[in-house]
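Protein in question reproduced for absentees:

***
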Amino acid sequence: HAVAKGAFLLLSSDYRIGVEGPFSIGLNEVKIGMTMHHVGITIARDRLTPAVFQRSVINAEMFNPQDAMTAGFLDRVVPPDALLTVANEVAQQLKGLNMGAHRKTKLKVRKNLLDTLDAAIETDKVTGLN
């Protein structure tokens, strides 16, 4: 399962692998009476498809792993017995990247998001999480 903070950790990760099974993934804050904070909205808006963003953030819809992949919470879904093998394969692929070029490119690609997150953090400081 990846619920609330766990789902935000997924959305904040570079590569997300989930496993098949009866798991729930999503942002349930509204369902449990929490107003979503600006930072969370910004992260969700960046990673989720537009239609799912609305359903997830506003309606607290939860997703099974396959639907979570389609929604943007996960990049890949594998059988549970393949998780370690696939995770190692992905880690080896990422290990082969030039980390300097990776870092600089990632900062360029995510500049608008990072600027928006900085503004969201300031807004959340001023207004609280309401």
The chain has a mean pLDDT of 95.
